[in-house]
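[Q] Does anyone have a clean structure-token version of this?
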Amino acid sequence: MDVKAINVLVLAYLGDTIYEDYIRKFLINRGISKVNDLQREASNFVSAKNQAQFLKKLCDANFFNEDELAVIRRARNNKNSSHPKNCDVLTYKHATALEAIIGYLELQNDRTRIDEIMNEILGEKLC
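[A] Here you go.
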């Protein structure tokens, strides 16, 4: 399978689940034991606005290699104009790009690189 040929929205679909799984495990490992508290804390990481900010921080730090940047550009430039009501199109496209790169790396079986991205986002090493 040529991962580079997969629709970026499909990559984002996969990346979204992986990203959220990392966030949930991170919060549980921090000792949060009530579902409502977990949900509230997770929103600090999984909102489109925050995901877009995480992507910007990583891009500004020249964190991504050329192949990864190509996936990010494809996702940001995707022609799909639908987006949630609570954010603008540009923010949503950047959030989608973060999810797409995670989905891309998952299909490349590169969990080490996903760990590196998530460590940067979470600000600490994952167990």
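[Q] Thanks! Anything notable?
[A] Helices lie at 8-29, 35-46, 48-60, 66-76, 89-107, 111-122.
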